[in-house]
Amino acid sequence: MNMVTTDIGEKQVCDLVVHNAVLLTVDEADRVIANGAIAVRDGAIAAVGAAQDILARYNPRRFLDAGGGIVHPGFIDAHVHISQYTSRSVLSCMEGTGVTMGDWKSALTPEDEHASAALAAMDYLKSGYTGFVDPGTIFSPDAVASVAEEFGIRIWLTDPYVADAGVELKKHFPELVSDSFLARWPKNQEEAFRRLGSQLFRNKERNSLVRAFIGLYGEGTDSEGLFRAAFDLARQHGVQMQEHLGYSPLPYRQRESAFGVSMMQHMSEEGLLNGHVTFVHMNAVHGGDVPILAAHEVGIVWCPYGQLQMLGRGGAEGRMVELHRAGVKVGIASDIPRAVHFSGLGSLAAVTAAATGLAASGREILRMRTSGSAATVGAASELGSLEVGKRADFVVRRPDVSENLGRDYALEFAVIADANSIEFVFVNGECVVSQGEVLRADDHAVISRARDSVRGLAARIGLA
């Protein structure tokens, strides 16, 4: 596949046409367009359809012949602790030492967070991702935000560690915290309120690769007053509000026992559910919660590895496929990819769904990795599908790979295929990956900085 520059004629002018492609639109009609084409102008999709029609209407500055390869919307990781990406092989080194992940996180510097995000961005783009969402676990948002323009990837972020009851985390998840870590959290409710909305300035530039939302850490670390303040602020600014909820079923069910009704029923009665709210994890969704979540258009972020962990411990109710089929906007996320590469997340989701007793189809997983993930961060109107007017974020796959058997394209390329099948990635209509290589990244330098960061962190916390 080659990119070709052309002379401009009398047809409609555009920046790029990708043709001779099999398009997986992931739009409302969920079309598969054989021998299709996309026209791109000013970073947005100007036309989608049969190649013959697009080529008759548009004269692009550049042509890309996909050679019969698959083109689909870029994946979005709906939830990742990006500054901890470089820690994904560290937990095993902590066993028996008394050092916790809290010690590691408390030692993070802006340089460490940048190195971690840069490594992740490179791996994301090579795996067909065009964006990721951090839930407010970056101490220095500017250090991570700069990665967007450096690599050409979208980033959604929020205020750092907003909570007014951080001690609850230590009670339920002692392996994740330390006193030095909690010392960097808000010290009281007043400080937590001051952090809310601190990143919303990033939304002033409409086409920026960095966008902000309202986030709470969650898992019982926020009072109902803080939740309501975040809820109201998100609605006021027209952005999404997110929080961790129901990662561990036991404390979640304890809270429900205190309410006397399910958590979702309680929040519905309190008027704290609407389309601006997204919960991450929800490993204890009850059957009666499904219609409540659907009626209020609440978003759910599914982290398959975390759900498998909870299914193994007992008490979890994994209903992500049921939620998706009920019309709930469900996105798929890595959380921290400790056991699988980004490119394997579709397979992990398929396995986890099977473990819950309700298998997910390839098309369902493709939708959850693209338009579903976009919806959970409030970006469904701009991203997640190949539709006119949406931003031109898409992936071009090689046609000559073993997965490309042409029977179930969504299964083949959203579940089975790995990063080796990716030829080009476009973000905002700009090519950021060509021939499988990230154009703006020096792989050696990025990996070297990440390795140095890990060594420095380990030394500072006394981890051999």
The CATH fourth-level homologous superfamily of the largest domain? Metal-dependent hydrolases
Q: Please write the CATH class name of the largest domain.
A: Alpha Beta
Shape: globular
Strand content: 15-25%
**Beginning-to-end CA distance, first to last residue:** 47 Å
By DSSP (H or I, 4+ residues per run), the number of helices equals 19
Oligomeric state, counting identical vs distinct chains: single chain
**CATH topology of the largest domain, what is it called?**
TIM Barrel
Number of structural domains: 2
Poorly predicted ranges: none
Strand element count = 19
Described by strand count, sense and barrel closure, the largest sheet is: 10 strands, mixed
Architecture per CATH nomenclature, i.e. the level-2 architecture of the largest domain: Alpha-Beta Barrel
Average pLDDT figure? 96
Which structural class do the helices and strands define?
A: alpha/beta
- Provide the gyration radius in Å: 22 Å
Q: Which percent bin holds the helix content?
A: 25-40%
